[in-house]
Amino acid sequence: MVKVFLRWTFLVGATLLLTGCMGAGTVPVSGTATLEDGTPLKSGSIEFTTEDLSMAAIGEIGEGGAYTIELDSSNPGCPPGKYKVVVTGTDPAVSEHYSSAETTDITVEVSAGTTDYPLKLKKG
């Protein structure tokens, strides 16, 4: 009986350990990029980059300012965590300070419970 209990405990523990080591995976991330007055951006890209700049997930701005973030074509979304938001290649009306991870002041906390991340940008 003790052997069965120990074996079961080992299997459960090993499963939890391996699951924890593989990370939380990615969660869906999308939203709409607009100017403060509500005008949607027409083009460009949105990049969610880690604060230490070690990883980035990118999405293109489409119709109505909509964007969807992905690590690559086989990994939609990005892992949960805190990100700096970089916005590039947009209308000249958008402030340039969003174009670099060093200067942007937009940050988001990606979590499994949230998928919509609207972005309101200041004019340049």
- Terminal Cα separation, in Å? 71 Å
How would a crystallographer describe the biggest sheet? 4 strands, antiparallel
What is the strand arrangement across the widest sheet? 3-2-7-8
Quaternary status: single chain
How much strand content do the residues show? 25-35%
Instruction: Please tell me what the overall shape is.
Output: globular
Q: Could you tell me the radius of gyration in angstroms?
A: 19 Å
Task: State the low-pLDDT regions, or none.
Answer: 1-23
**Total helical segments:** 1
Structural class, please? alpha+beta
Helix content: 10-25%
Order of helices and strands: HEEEEEEEEE
Arithmetic mean of pLDDT? 82
Outline of the structure:
The chain is α+β, with helices and mostly antiparallel strands and 124 residues long.
Strand and helix map with partners:
Blueprint (H helix, E strand, L loop, with lengths): L1 H20 L8 E6 L9 E6 L5 E5 L5 E3 L1 E3 L2 E2 L4 E8 L18 E4 L8 E3 L3
Descriptive tags:
three-stranded mixed beta sheet; alpha+beta; 124 residues; four-stranded antiparallel beta sheet; globular
Describe this structure in words.
Mean pLDDT is 82; it is low at 1-23. By secondary structure, this protein is of the alpha+beta class. The strands form 2 sheets. Strands 3-2-7-8 form a 4-stranded antiparallel sheet, with no helix packed on it. It contains 1 helix and 9 strands. It has one helix at 2-21; strands spanning 30-35, 45-50, 56-60, 66-68, 70-72, 75-76, 81-88, 107-110, 119-121.
